[in-house]
Amino acid sequence: MDKLKTIVLTALVIMSLVQSYLLAYSMPGLGVTASPLQPYVQPEPMGQEEKVENVIFPEDMVLHLGKGKHTVLYPATNFYNLIFGKIKSREFKGFQRSPAVVVDWEDIRDRDQGLELRFGRGVPVELLSKVLKLEGDVDFMNDVINRIWIYKSSDRDEVRTYFFSTDNITVYESVKADLTAQDVQMYVGYGEYQVSYRKVGDDMYIPDGPIESMQSTVGYDSYSPEQMQRYLFVDPGVTREISDRSGTQIYTDGKRGLQVEQNGRWISYTDPVALQGQEDNESQNVYAAIQFINQHGGWDGMHRFVHAGSFEQSVQVLRFQQYYGSYPIIPQDPFLFGSMKLRLLQGVVSEYERSLLTLQKKPQKRDIRWLPGGDMVENALEHYSRRLEVTALYPALLASPADKNKMLLAPVWAVRLLDGSQAVLLKAIPGGYKPQPGEPGGAPLVKDTPTTGSGGGIGLTDGRLNLPGGGSGDAGSAANESGGATADHNDEGTSTASK
Amino acid sequence: MDWGRAKSVLIFAFLLLNLVLGYQLWSNIREGLRTSADVGDLRPETQALMEEKKIKLGTSIPSETPALHDLTYKVKVGLGKGERHELKTPVDSKVVFVDKELQASLGGVIPELDEYTLGAVLENEFILYRMAEGRPMFDVKLELFYSNQKITAYKQDLIELLPSDKQAAQSVLSATKVVTSLIENQLKNGAVIEEIKLGYHGQIFNSDTQVSAPTWRVLLEDGGQYYMNAISGEVVTE
């Protein structure tokens, strides 16, 4: 009996030990899933960082000098910076909403001294309030505006400030803006010695005479696709490289994809995200986009935020237009360059397209090129095949790859179409030749003795030569380096028209 | 000292201990064997949130967490770009539910039919997914069109799996984690989860070679789809 008890006890002790062991080592949840991760490498920072304040600025400024005279200032020029700097320090309060038709804008444009800050396709007020001192109600803050018009009423000596909504129906007047008539007069005064512009069509301005600009050959550096891959993938170790039917390299980890196009000069990154069924907030998306770019490649020089203006299924596309000097860069098809495009869903980036090239600060070669003015541009515009879709006309730089690691930036007249795409309207006069008054692209002929100052005053329309618009030729070959190319190398795109 | 008594007491004590341990072990094993869990297995907070958002679970939650790795495959007939082939002799649509009959009736017509398994039944078509290691590839489909209970045509994505390189397999996230995350972050009020399935999914490129990663697919009653990467836990809707 005693022996039996001993055996039973021993058996029980052993069994409890075995069970304890099994319990301890087969507990679900105790097994740790170790993943063979690559050691995390902190990537070296690339590109410079940018803040939202620096990517929001007017596309151009139109100064109305009164008596039907106008001129246009482009970003990063002296007078533009001066005026915009001053406007930034002013306060705009007490916004009152009213229909745009209550004021006869045509009348004010020609009669009253004033200035227009034009934002192209518009900018959300919430973002604009990071740049200007604005205080308005919720309706105003949630709107998108495309223009600020400040003018000195000619009958009374008072300044009125209007913000135009992109719906083209609503305007907001700031009744408590601390701008004085002297301010406006001073701003307008900066335009006295600029090329004068005339208005054509809907809010487009054409200079009466040629404007000076620079054709530059700029060297560039390039990020490697591997560098970009390190930035964009959580664990670069598990990405695979496959290639496209057209030979494009694709890196993917099954979810994200990074396509490297144009011989490693352009990337397009896609990362599908989950819809959360919340409202998209554009301003938040812009902040998120800027942050994302700061961390994934950085900024190459000056960029301007371009409002997409279309909401398709709460998906938002944002674009940042790159500038070189005063002009935006547009790529020559099929070359891809000049802007960064992002698609965001509730602040999460799902698509990101950009160039891997970064332009060197100093161009290797610069030549003066005169952009034609006057009737030549107007004719080109009138005969443009998609004239009805044109919403803006502005000088730009056409980027095309030159020799090894160099890019040619040639000044052109560009148009923006309704869908936001950009196209070349007219190239610069080849060879650095400055068209004389009366020649195609030159200032109008003046019958009476020319007045000093602006090149092409008022009341000269009858003296113009009517010239065909297509005589621009090819700006590509710079074979004959004629006079004028040795002029001073100022950094501004525009210059005062000299007679 | 009465050794006999002491032994009896010890025997009794160890018997009790063994019973307790045995019960624990048995319930653990049962847990492991069970292939699915239900609402009751979610965390109480998640259940409270489900109640608050009126989210319902119309299916059980798989409890498997196998170790899987990415798939690389070559596309022979473009994904979703395959041609629609009409069948010369329509086949009774019932066969689709029994593998052997399906093989017997269409095996000679549709190439690599044995690699595909029924995934979904829609109004006019059956969707079969290409299987890889016993799990469906959600991007590679064979569609069988039917009308009047006859299969009349098919459309097929054809691929060839490439041998996977040295990359080690990793245990996937459990479906309970997937569901919990979806309920907490993604699902709208009133959503009904209809199916939770482990398979492969990837972003599709304009390329001959594609990559698919282990993915949990969650289908909602209203047609919504969520793909959650079963390794990283990132969610995609499509």
From TrEMBL, chain A:
Matches recorded under CDD domains: YycH_N
Low complexity biased stretches: 475-487
InterPro entries recorded: YycH, YycH/YycI_2
Regulatory protein YycH domain ranges (all copies): 3-418
Pfam families documented for this protein: YycH
Residues covered by region (Disordered): 433-499
Protein name, entry field: Regulatory protein YycH of two-component signal transduction system YycFG
From TrEMBL, chain B:
GO cellular component: membrane
High-level lineage: Bacteria, Bacillati, Bacillota, Bacilli, Bacillales
UniProt-listed Gene3D superfamilies: YycH protein, domain 3-like (2.40.128.690)
Species annotation: Paenibacillus taihuensis
UniProt xrefs under InterPro entries: YycI-like
Protein name, per record: Regulatory protein YycI of two-component signal transduction system YycFG
Limits of the Regulatory protein YycH-like domain: 89-231
Pfam families: YycI
